[in-house]
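ping. complex inputs:
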Amino acid sequence: MTAAAWVAVGALGGVMAIARFVVDTTVATRLGAGRLGEDFPIGTLVVNLSGAVLLGVLAGAALSGSVYTIVAGGGVGTYTTFSTWMLESHRAGEDGEARVLWANIALSLVAGLAAVALGHWLGGAL
Amino acid sequence: MRQRRFDRRELAAIYAGGVVGALGRVGLAEALPHGVGAWPWATFAVNMVGAALLGWFVTRLGERLPPSTYRRPFLATGICGALTTFSTLQLELFKMLEAGYVPLAVGYAAATIACGFACVHVGTVATRRARVLR
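pong. complex structure:
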């Protein structure tokens, strides 16, 4: 990868970190209630599922090389987050909300896999 | 009175952390490429480290240190959020399953979740036990 490509990774990464924050807080504010309660981390779920679809599309479209590394790795990889998923699950457990903990883990995992599969299929059709 | 929704300096802190985390993750991924039937060590490593760091930072900033406007956006949302990745994990699982590596996929998913959760826990309790130095 060229130096310019690495700069692009970092620059796009910064942007997508902001995008994650904006989507998470916007969704959480507007959708912060539901069957699983206001404490379900819906913002992170929406971020992660949308990112999974996006990454699936990029992979399914067989993007490769530096462009793939920049957009998929620097971009979408930064947009989605594993640590926040785990932290919010952990905190739900500490708050005595076992249902939220397990629902967050199971739903994210299963829906995430479905999301990337869907994206991959869409990308292949492009 | 309508307030500006997002603080520009908070966004700048998130941006800076995002740059650091992204370069760390992509850098390691480029250094440790793997085939579809192999354990994705780069993703696993950054996800575990990021989870532990996030447990540490969020607990420390939330329960130990006086409130700061920019540390958490930089360290937590920025660095940890960018260093770790959910989408790459899912794509790796998808590719494993597509290629028929089912036990590997199950093991990778289970280990990622179990160890990731444990890392957040360790980071959390470690800061609660540590004394505040300043």
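Chain A has a mean pLDDT of 95.
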